[in-house]
User: Fold this.
Amino acid sequence: MSTLTPASSPGLLVYLQAELAAIQREMERREGTRQADLELAARVHESLLPRPVHHPRIDVDTRYVPVEGVGGDYCQVLFPDESCCYITMCDVTGHGIGPALLATRVSSEVRHLAFDRRRPMEIVQDLNAFVNHHFRDTELQLSFFAAQFDLTQRTIRYSGAGHPSPLLIRQGAGPIERLASQNLLIGVAENCLDDQPEHATQLHPGDRLVFFTDGLTETTGVEGKRLGQAGLAEIAARTCAGSLFEMADCILGRIDRFRVGPVRDDMTLIIAELK
Assistant:
């Protein structure tokens, strides 16, 4: 019995080459479609992020640096009325379209709760119930932080769920304070609230608050050393003398100089200053 080989059957060789070329074209078409979908998702995600805020009683600046065009970081700056401002931030585990979609859906739910003037601890509690009800089987979890500003009284009420503690830089001298994140990650347990799930503090004109995701503090430098919250606090202290709207770029610039290797996680940064 003879063995069929490409050399003995040139027609088969031509057929196989044509099939391989068709498969290659189809793979390139699908990859092009995937890239187009990612680019569109990134544009939609970016369009929903807050723009710089110039308000008679508070200024706010925002930066977002995704790893893959879209990611699981999300933040909002909301004004239910002229005397009230909410700043919220979440970080969904993972990267790509799935976490980005969940972050966007979470943001929609939080927006509704904020405009109902819910307290930060209530937003955390309701968001945890929402994620557990609709997305428990996804195994996705998220850290979250909600701050409510009374712009007339200059107070902040806040509640966090496994999120990095925002930094409070007082006008003038004094150490940088941390606004502790009190509760469990969203989606971990049916009840994520701690015994003291919410705190409040008085603010003064010129005080600045730095909200961020762990992509900043987990940046690694020489010999794999992480920046950490202490490192970020030191950078914030060194960059707070200038304009609020220059500070975010100064912080990110110093983090870039500290980093060794590529960006490995999404980075979101919000800086607010009371007037």
